[in-house]
Amino acid sequence: MTELEAVRLFKCLADKSRLQILKSLAAEDMYVERLAERLGLTPSTISFHLKKIADAGAVRSYRTQYYTMYSLCREIFDTRILDIVCETSDEAALQDRREEEYRQRVIRSFFAYGRLKAIPAQEKKERIILEEIARAFEPGRIYTEGEINLILADYYDDFCTLRRDMVAEGILGREQNQYRLLERENNTP
Amino acid sequence: MTELEAVRLFKCLADKSRLQILKSLAAEDMYVERLAERLGLTPSTISFHLKKIADAGAVRSYRTQYYTMYSLCREIFDTRILDIVCETSDEAALQDRREEEYRQRVIRSFFAYGRLKAIPAQEKKERIILEEIARAFEPGRIYTEGEINLILADYYDDFCTLRRDMVAEGILGREQNQYRLLERENNTP
DNA sequence: TATTTATTTTGATAAATATAAAAATACTTT
DNA sequence: AAAGTATTTTTATATTTATCAAAATAAATA
To answer: Which B-chain residues 2-31 have CB contacts (< 8 A) with chain A?
Structure first.
């Protein structure tokens, strides 16, 4: 389901009158005038709402005698909200791209000729810088403190601060003076 | 969940920006500025949206360092839409009452001194009248055509039309000249 | 075909709302 | 306590939208 479709579906549900219409239709199929009676609204208003609901694919209609009967599309209502929110596909790539562009801006403004000009004061910017420098380490490999310092010194004179902050940020792990790159966690900024 | 709460929840989901916020939060907890970066909106707008989402009980927040982290309330998103639509309790009684009032108006206008003045031309009104008259029959009991006619003649001279229409409407059932009251169906007008 | 009945469309209007800029708060770190 | 940051509130605006009345369609019956 596209993002636009999801928004359209939720808009149907985000209105008192339409919610009542849907609840009535969940009990039994009905026609416009009867719904108008039940909800205390005019038929034109009900028709207006039903059109929106139909556009979102939440009801079907069929004719019998004088009336146009409306009937709930039960499939749609059987879905969990989370599934709709998450499986709404587009845009996700765009968001990631925008965040990546921001990272690149930060990196460009703090690096010059492959070296760090200064350690950013803002934690989130420093995090970006440290992650960028961490790409110089091989995943899985064990480093001594000396090796770490050597690599970091290529980027910045105060390599001790870099190393300490990398450990504090959970980018590097230290166990009895051996260092290694940690997996990228997913639930910390 | 009350109807108002349901509407408020669905309103959260019925907006492109909020949907994107929620999708981002479904992946990992985030703070205002980061969301603003991702979505290409200002922090004040994000804050505005997050407040609405929080009012609907769809996110929680906690503080770490400089940031106020926002985190999805997963319980809510695990519910099926139908459950929310149907279990939204109030108003249902009001609607039924309003429909009953309409029935009473129709009955009052077509009956005089316990007898039918005319058979309504409109099918839905005739249905109401026929159902009202059908209350004279005992559920489960078997009637001959003669007994049926006798009872209906109390209400209207043209008892044949009444009897025929009752069968057509599915109110009376006929099997080899024996009649009986049918159960009230639920999915026909 | 004419008439009755149901539904939809069209205007018009009042209320709600998404957004940004600027100002005000609130919280951390030094 | 002061300075730096993040977040929220306020103000203003342009857009959307729920509703009804009246007019226009559409469909069924006589």
So the answer is: 3-4, 6-7, 10-11, 13-16, 19-20, 22-24, 26-31
How many distinct structural domains can be found in chain B? Answer: 2
B10 chain-A contacts, CB cut-off 8 A: 10, 13-14, 19
pLDDT at position A93:
55
Does residue B74 share a domain with residue B148?
Answer: no
Is residue A145 less than 8 Å (CB to CB) from chain B?
no
Strand pairing class (B67-72; B59-64):
antiparallel
CATH number at residue A79: 1.10.10.10
Q: Touching check for B82 and chain A: CB below 8 Å?
A: yes
Residue A41 belongs to domain spanning: 3-85
Could you read off the pLDDT of B48-98 as tens digits, one per residue? 999 999 999 999 999 988 899 999 999 999 999 999 998 876 555 566 666
Pairs from A123-129 (Cβ < 8 Å, separation ≥ 24): A123/B65, A123/B66, A124/A189, A124/B33, A124/B34, A126/A165, A126/A169, A127/A169, A127/A189, A128/A103
* Residue B94 covered by a domain: no
What is this structure's pTM? Answer: 0.65
Query: pLDDT digit string (tens) for A132-154?
Result: 888 888 877 899 999 999 989 88
> CA A68 – C1' D27 distance (Å)?
10
pLDDT of residue B98: 67
pLDDT, one tens digit per residue, over A160-169 is: 888 988 888 8
Q: Do A71 and A101 fall into the same domain?
A: no
- Residue A66 touches partner B, C-beta closer than 8 Å: yes
Q: Are residues A133 and A157 in the same domain?
A: yes
Q: How many CB pairs under 8 A join A and B?
A: 144
B54 plus B18 within the same structural domain: yes
Is residue B90 in a domain?
A: no
